[in-house]
Every structure is written in C-alpha cells, then in structure tokens.
C-alpha cells in the first residue's frame, strides 16, 4: 500500500468561501445539501453570484463531477427522486452542458489543438512583449481598476472556484474591455479552476468571444452585474460598450467520435490506471478484466506552459488519491500513486511488471492532457506487449453523439437519454 495519504498534500481549503474537499464523502454531502433546492428554487436563483461565502443557490458540484468523484447519472437520479423533470429542468440541463461540451470537442478536436498551439505561442510573447505582459499581469493579479473583475481574479486564485455567471462576465471583460487574447484567459482559468476541464473551459471562452456559436458573443453589462451580484458590485465603470465577435480560420471538418476499447470477456488480470478524468474506478465496466493492482498518474502539470494553480493541482491530486483508496477498498488490491510523470509509458510499463500483468484498463480519456499522455504512451506499451484498454461510460455513449451543433439539439434528446440511463418516467 503506497497511496499518498497526507491530507496537507491536497488541502483545497482557503480563508475565503466554500471549502471543496476532494473526497467522495464531501461530494455526496454537497449533493444531499443541494437537492432540496434543485427544482424551481435553482431555476429562479441560479444566475445570482452572492460571493464566495454564499453558494446556497447553486450546486457547487462541478469539481466533483469533473473528476467523476460524483457521476452525472448519480446526480440526475437523485434529482429526479425529489423533483419532477419539469421543475428540475434547468438543473438537469446544466448537468448535460458538460457532456455537451465534451462531445462537441470530440467531434472537433481541431479546436483543442489550435488552442494549445496558441497558448504556447502567447506564453512566449509574454516574455518578449512588455505591453502584453503588463496588461496580462494586471489582469491575473486583479489590478485593472475594475472592481468586480479584480475581485473575481483574486477569488479564482485563492479558492479555485468562480460562479458560472462571474466566469462569463470575467471572460467578456477580459476579451472586450481589456482586449487580451481569449486563449490566455482560458489558460488562466484552466490553471486555477478546481473543475478545470479541457472541453468546458475552452469552448465556454470560445462562446463568449463569438467563436463557438458564430457571431454570438456575451457582453458584460454594468446593470446586469449590479442586479445579479445583488449590488455587491454596483454598476462597474469602464466596461466595453459593445462586444464584436472574434474571428478565426474555420476549424476542420467534424470527425467521428473515437471508439472505446473492447474489454476482455474472459478472466484477465489487469492493472487499473486512475487519472483525473475519472476517479470512480469500481463503477467502470470491466467485463472480464480482473483488477490485481492500481496506479494513479497525474497530467495536471500538462495543462499549460505556465505555472499551475496550487488549489487546482491539489484537488486533482486528492481526487486521484480518493480513486486509489476506493480501488483498494472495493477490489482489495495493492495501489500506488498518485504521481506526476513526464514519461507515462515508463511508469506504466514498470507498474504493469510489478503487477505481473500485460493488460492496463483505464477510463476513456476525452480530449485533453490525459488523452495526450495516453496516446504518447500507447506505442511504447504495445512494443512492450502491454495492451491499454479505455472503457467509456454509458452516459458518454448516449450523450456525445448528439453534440454536433448547438446545445439545443442535445437538449431535445435529454428525455431519451434519461430513458437510456434507466431514469425516464
């Protein structure tokens, strides 16, 4: 047993606001606390940002769902036990937005590869161009003079979390008022958000800038900020009077979703690989794969060429650690990690040899750093005679194929998806 258990290593608490602990128990407790409000109360109050000390009007479940310490299907089932589909419609749709973004990016991986290349280029520009560096540093340090924006910049770094409406305002001010590259703003979020997700984060910033839904932007307005922060920020001054859409070269054509791997149908000893993509291993569909050991690897440091935020790094570490503890308890197997590694192939070959197996099973990694690491390791694993199997959850299989255009197309399929999950009425 070599799981990291020092709580200080994944302490995500702060002196301000809501505390997020990267454990299954904390996720379940938060879900139960929120469920009574998941119906009409959520629909009427969800757009209000009352500040980091009051998250009573929203679920605050996204860090847990992002790392799959808590599953979408679990959240939907618990919600529908307490509320009708109509009264909880807004919250149910909010759960599906994450799956929509992940499916959309699977269909258009160019959006990710282009964003990654842009961030690399802009990170070098920050070193060479004093004007860009000064404006950027003022923004990320909360020193622009725009009170709401500066407060949100501090809140993000200090807590690892922002209300969704604040994220939209922040992105709009970053792009249209400060005139900074959207990619650097998306990178700032991705490095600090506890729920930082390649698809949700990248595509949300593209949406605000008018790239996701062509020509449709989101403009931060002083009156809207005043209303939906309950006048915590009263009519902030200096906001851009308009939000003209950004432009770019067209993305490549839509591609089919990558296939998941077939699991063995007969008894086959396997090493489980737990990553920050899915930390709930005992609910993976393993078929005939029989877990004999588990290891945890982190790709958090690969999110950006710039420095990762402490809170986001700690939460990802703690979530993978939690997944390893679950694997040990449920399967009764030896576990190691979590650890960061620049050479996933070498780490996995070593772990497979220690477990005396030639099969590694992991959760399907959607587009992002974990997938990048697995794709890089795969040829080396094959050369060593090791088979890497990625298993995908039914929720993703049912949701992603409908994420080919705007969210509306998927929204119309929600009742059918719920039926497919055994949650229809």
What sequence of helices (H) and strands (E) makes up the elements?
Answer: EHHHHHHHHHHHHEEHEHEHEHHH
**Overall number of domains:** 3
**Number of E strands:** 6
Percentage of residues in helical conformation: 40-55%
Structural class: alpha/beta
Query: Looking at CATH, which topology of the largest domain would you report?
Result: Rossmann fold
CATH architect. name of the largest domain: 3-Layer(aba) Sandwich
Number of helices: 18
- Going by CATH, what is the homologous superfamily of the largest domain? HUPs
Mean pLDDT: 95
**Kindly, what is the distance between the CA atoms of the first and last residues, rounded to a whole number of angstroms?**
45 Å
How would you characterize the largest beta sheet?
A: 6 strands, parallel
Q: What coarse outline follows from CA principal-axis ratios?
A: globular
Low-confidence region ranges: 5-11
Gyration radius, in Å: 21 Å
**Strand line-up of the largest beta sheet:** 1-4-3-2-5-6
